[in-house]
Amino acid sequence: MNIALTKHFEELIERLVASGRYNNSSEVVRAGLRILDAEERALSGAIYPAGSLRRLYTKAENQAERRTAGVSSLKVEPE
After folding, report:
1. d(CA 51, CA 56)
2. Among 2, 24, 3, 4, which Cα is nearest to 13's?
3. Please, where are the H alpha helices in the chain?
4. What local confidence, expressed as pLDDT, does residue 50 receive?
5. What is the C-alpha separation between 63 and 29, in angstroms, rounded?
6. What is the pTM of this model?
7. pLDDT tens digits for 45-61?
8. Distance CA 79, CA 76 (A)
């Protein structure tokens, strides 16, 4: 497979390989594709089924409300 890259991405790949973080350009491309794959799955609902993010948000919101429920009734005495 041949892939055409812009100068920007060619230089990015070269910098990442030169840094020693990756052994070659294929490793850089695979790392980028793994990130893209995860984002695409998240957007398509493969990771978070419909409504699950809303349920997680609501659960976190309720927990936060319970933790702070007593705080509003506290009185602060002036020094």
Report:
1. 9
2. 24
3. 7-18, 25-44, 52-68
4. 65
5. 41
6. 0.56
7. 666 666 777 777 788 88
8. 9
**29, 13 contact by CB (below 8 A):** yes
Residues 53 and 56: their CA atoms lie apart, in Å, by 5
Collect contacts of 74-78 with beta carbons under 8 A, ≥24 apart: none
Q: Could you give the 3-state DSSP secondary structure of residue 8?
A: helix
DSSP state of 73: G
Q: How many residues does the chain have?
A: 79
Contacts of 17 (CB under 8 A, 6+ apart): 23, 24, 25, 27, 28
